[in-house]
Design brief:
With 73 residues, the protein is of the alpha+beta class. The protein has a domain of 50 residues. It has 2 helices and 5 strands. The strands form 2 sheets. The chain has a 3-stranded antiparallel beta sheet with strand order 4-1-5, with no helix packed on it. Strand 2 and strand 3 form a beta hairpin. The longest helix has 9 residues. The protein is globular, with a radius of gyration of 17 Å.
Length: 73
């Protein structure tokens, strides 16, 4: 199973790490496209934002106004 991750640079101009250009807009990558050494470089880079490994759990919760439904007039 391929793991897809959205990775974003904290550097506005972007930069290269592990032979890949990472921008501040971010990009979707396939984990399987990188060697173990390249992946270690990416994970260790403090200027990259990488989501949690599970990718599903977040601390975001919708506000009450988004979860309440209103009857049509």
């Amino acid at each position: 199973m391929n793991q897809r991750l959205f990775i974003r640079s904290k550097n506005r101009q972007g930069f290269r790490r592990a032979d890949e250009l990472f921008t501040s807009e971010g990009k979707m990558i396939e984990r399987s496209n990188f060697t173990e050494s390249q992946w270690a470089q990416i994970k260790a880079e403090p200027l990259l934002t990488i989501p949690p490994a599970n990718g599903l759990k977040t601390s975001w919760k919708p506000s009450a106004s988004l979860t309440q439904t209103k009857s049509p007039p």
